[in-house]
Amino acid sequence: MKTVTGPRGWLAQLRRQWLLHRLTDPAYAFVLEPPPPDEWVALDCETTGLNVRSDEIIAIGAVRIVGNRILTSERLELLVRPDKSVPADSVRIHRLRSTDVAQGLPIEEALGQLLRFIGSRPLVGYYLEFDVAMLNRALWPLLGMGLPQPAIEVSAMYYEHKFRQLPPYQQHANADIDLRFATLMDDLGLPRREAHDALNDAVMAALAFVKLRQLHGAG
Fold first, then answer.
1. pLDDT category of residue 114 using cuts at 50, 70 and 90
2. CATH of the domain at 143
3. What is the 3-state secondary structure (H, E, C) of 12-81?
4. Does any domain span residue 108?
5. According to the model, what pLDDT value does residue 216 have?
6. What's the rounded Cα separation, in Å, for the pair 202 and 198?
7. pLDDT tens, 141-196?
8. Domain count, the chain
């Protein structure tokens, strides 16, 4: 591994050593390696509800991004078997019933597959904080930590993109910018897939990420 010099390099090395010390299973040390350049993983989860403390993950979708390419051939699509039944309110959103996920993977096996798919790549998603919080709760017994990869929020990228387009007198902290996923996709001229499907949502987040990077680079 190439040695990184300078204050940031030393801080990164110190952080990695500290996290390695915390890691409960050395088999997953690869998540702490330097990420491949210009690679990311777009991620989305479907859950039994919105309570991070008590609800469960029932589907995981992820796709790799390399440069400006979304590698849909390198994707991950998993159903996860929950301990409890899927509430009707949740089924109406993502259309996954208890019978649909009854043969899903145990959460520990699903997380192992997800970690191997992500590696050390930074994560991309739309309102990713919730998905990461759900994953982290399940990951602590496995890793002794949450996901260590950087997380890139697509809605924040879009907000910055739209904020830069506002006239100076409207550029203030409470600028009214519509961050709904459908609005974001339509405004960027991107195709929409059926929402509330983990893989579809991950692919749409990846599309938005790539487009916003291109727009930012052009600006």
1. very high
2. 3.30.420.10
3. HHHHHHHHHHHCCCHHHHHHHCCCCCCEEEEEEEEECCCCCCCCCEEEEEEEEEECCEEEEEEEEEEEEC
4. yes
5. 85
6. 6
7. 989 999 999 999 999 999 999 999 888 878 777 778 999 999 999 999 999 988 88
8. 1
